[in-house]
Amino acid sequence: MGKNIYDMLNEVEIDLSEYEREDFTDIEKRKIKNKFKKSIKKNNSIYKKGIIAASIALLIIGFSVTDFGNHVWANAGTYVNTVAYGIGNFLGIEKNLDEYKTVIEQPITKEGVTIKLNEVILDNNQLIVSTTLKSDEKLEDIFTRYFGSVYINGKSASDGAGGGSKQIDDHTIEEVMTYNLNGDFSGDLNIKLVFSDVMINGNTKKAKYVFNFKTNGDELAKDTKAILLNNTFTLENGQNITLEKYTSNNIGQRIYFSKGSKGTDYDMVLRGHDDLGNKVEFCMSSADANSGIFKLNNIDGNLNENAKTLTLTPYAVKFPKKSGKMSNDFKQVGEAFTIDLSK
């Protein structure tokens, strides 16, 4: 199932400094910024950044809050018809995720801002979190953000996060973030999710929003298929990248990799096709100095269930040292390889 332009643009982050201020109104800038991928850097983690230019006009033309569904709020932070987008819809996942979700539906209101924790899914070493932010103050600035920290069984467990948001109206944002966890977890988990330093219209609110809940990822882990890999390619700086494992479940497909030496100088992508002739692309969704993850790009649809093999070729481009503008000049850095999905 294809995505519309809004979902396509939600996969990357835009640098608005590349465009003249008078080109867009403040509300247009805010709508653009909130549609693009957010990135948090912690513990030297790095998350993919990109620049989209030609598509911006498409985003602005015909933008309407009705595209995001009806979302009704009652007084005092009480929600009616709570979530316009669940995790599955937000991420473009066609399969039913109900058996893997923990539905929480808990709002907390402080300083005129309500954050509601909607639902979560524990996907191996990643926690996918759906939240809704409602501000009494009209959201006039493009910089509206709120970052979370994850604690599991009393210990800090999050290395960083990446995701995206959709603006529902002038006061409301829905967001789905994927938090990378520093470990693999099983069984019933006591989780504390803390949001702090909420920024509304450029002003930081110091209130903390603390959510406590239990979740369990064993069912999704049981339904996750893993195929060991041993493919290595070398970047222009001599750094070896080893593809170690392919995983697939109802959330999506990932390829895990390690680095022969420390460094986060390159963006990478794996491009190719399945045995049915469908184009396939795995984008680098997260990485630190030692390892990272490629995630299947499902803009043009999810992986065909009848595919038996994937043939992929690695490409890379160096991150800019000074300018925030990303280059799209990816160059091949290794030979094509095949993953046998029938294993």
Task: Provide the fold topology.
Layout lengths: L4 H5 L16 H10 L2 E3 L15 H5 L11 E2 L5 E2 L6 H5 L9 E10 L2 E11 L2 E10 L9 E8 L2 E2 L1 E12 L2 E10 L7 E12 L2 E3 L3 E7 L2 H5 L2 E10 L5 E9 L4 E7 L6 E9 L4 E9 L3 E6 L12 E10 L12 E2 L4 E4 L3
Antiparallel strand pairs: 1-9, 2-3, 4-5, 5-6, 6-10, 7-8, 7-11, 9-10, 11-12, 11-13, 14-15, 15-16, 16-19, 17-18, 17-20, 18-19, 20-21, 20-22
- What number of structural domains do the residues give? 2
Task: Please report the number of helical segments.
Answer: 5
Any idea of the CATH class of the largest domain?
Answer: Mainly Beta
CATH-assigned fold name of the largest domain: Immunoglobulin-like
- Which descriptor suits the 3D outline? globular
For the record, the CATH architecture of the largest domain stands as Sandwich
Average of the residue pLDDT scores:
79
Order of helices and strands: HHEHEEHEEEEEEEEEEHEEEEEEEEE
Task: Describe the largest sheet.
Answer: 9 strands, antiparallel
Strand fraction equals over 45%
Class from secondary-structure proportions: mainly beta
CATH-defined superfamily of the largest domain:
bacillus anthracis domain
Report helical residue fraction: under 10%
